[in-house]
DNA sequence: TTTGCACTTGACAATTTTGTCAAACATAAA
DNA sequence: TTTATGTTTGACAAAATTGTCAAGTGCAAA
């Protein structure tokens, strides 16, 4: 529809290239030169569009935060039963992890670097999360999942899902697994997680 | 006993300072100057003792690998029953995490940076791991833990234990928890993990 | 006390990286 | 065609970072 201005195209190109470098290849400390080269543009453009290297990094980080929120929304909004919500979330995450395996670690290292950063979530999300926790507790009452504080349940779930993806190089080394073996293992994670979390 | 040479003292001082910077404070990209300042020595000493910045980084990484092996040994060696082995491991890890919360993430980012690195484990550890997996399968047969490939069980266990510690800033933000709340949650992890992993 | 040796330092040089700026370029409107 | 606006470039300057080196220091053995 709207004719993309050349500006927008280059702007997007740079930011996407940075994202790929960070999330896909794990080059968390790429220099402006490296980013420019990867994008096939002049290095100066990074300063032109983003003011400074740091500003670009922050922008990518902000996009990451938005994606985190989107994901969170997905699990607390929607009227599906708990199990289906979780399944949907797993599928979504694993698909995304195929494209951006280092996304979570990048977000983490940025947070560590910046000493801190507060998300300050929207009120309605907080509300929905509360509601979701209540649903969880109902499920625990029914006996389909172990009784425990909802936050602990969420930690279990998130950990079992993200850790094997985010820490892949670490784990692959520790357990001495080759790429093929590890891919196979990951493909089985969904079933394993569900089996571990739901009582039957 | 043996009178520490001044050399050894300084050498250790530098390497420990680096370790603290990396593992404790998460300064994964500390410059030689920062390390020297933190150690209260002249920057040149880093080149004197370690040849180059990179060599120092590698050395810290190697120590990390050794610690990983030590930990792994702990869980596969020893004649305790499975549950006690795992409990021991949890205690050990959580204690260590108090001092070095960013250890795992540092190891990971180094692995990502260096593109790759193979552990090549000792034969006897491989053997013991096999034995441990058999023990696990026996336990599954008995019905105390869910039936699944042993490696998946280990992934579940390791994930639920390490992820909440290693990704703390990430999770604390996502779930909007303050330090006190999060500490409390971590203190309950051991029981939660055991409850999740063992059928009763 | 003097000599030798290991340890430590400040100063320098080379390199890398970032940010700025003026000029060149393209393109659409007047 | 000219003008105006926004985009891109190469060259330069400043800062940060690493590595080297020659000289200085302290201490133990001769």
Describe it.
Two copies of one chain form a homodimer. With 200 residues, chain A is mainly alpha-helical. Helices cover 75% and strands 0% of the residues of chain A. In chain A, helix 4 (53-76) packs across helix 7 and helix 8 (150-166) runs antiparallel to helix 10 (179-197). The longest helix of chain A is centred in the N-terminal third of the chain and has 24 residues, at 53-76. Chain B binds a DNA duplex (30 and 30 nucleotides) through residues 5-7, 10, 31-33, 41-48, 51-53.
Query: Total helix count of chain A?
Result: 10
Radius of gyration of chain A: 20 Å
Largest sheet of chain A: none
Q: Identify the quaternary structure here.
A: homodimer
Shape of chain A: globular
Work out the helicity level of chain A.
Answer: over 70%
Overall structural class of chain A, as computed from helix and strand content, comes to: mainly alpha
Beta strands of chain A, count:
0
Mean residue pLDDT of chain A: 90
What is the largest interface, and how many residues per chain?
A-B, 52 and 52 residues
- Report low-confidence residues of chain A grouped into runs of 5 or more: none
Q: N-to-C SSE series of chain A?
A: HHHHHHHHHH
Tell me what portion of residues of chain A adopts beta-strand conformation: under 5%
């Amino acid at each position: 529809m709207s004719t993309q201005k050349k500006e927008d195209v280059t702007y997007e190109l740079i930011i996407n290239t940075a994202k790929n470098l960070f999330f896909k290849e794990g080059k968390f400390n790429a220099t402006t030169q490296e980013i420019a080269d990867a994008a096939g543009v002049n290095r100066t453009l990074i300063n032109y569009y983003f003011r400074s290297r740091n500003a670009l990094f922050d922008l990518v980080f902000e996009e990451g935060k938005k994606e985190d929120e989107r994901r969170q929304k997905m699990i607390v909004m929607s009227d599906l039963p708990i199990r289906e919500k979780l399944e949907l979330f797993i599928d979504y995450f694993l698909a995304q992890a195929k494209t951006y395996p280092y996304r979570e670690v990048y977000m983490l290292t940025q947070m560590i670097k910046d000493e801190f950063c507060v998300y300050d979530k929207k009120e309605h999300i907080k509300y929905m999360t509360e509601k979701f926790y209540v649903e969880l507790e109902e499920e625990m009452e029914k006996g389909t999942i172990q009784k425990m504080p909802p936050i602990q349940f969420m930690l279990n779930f998130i950990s079992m899902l993200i850790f094997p993806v985010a820490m892949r190089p670490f784990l692959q080394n520790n357990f001495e697994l080759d790429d093929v073996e590890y891919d196979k293992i990951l493909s089985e994670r969904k079933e394993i997680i569900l089996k571990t979390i739901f009582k039957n």
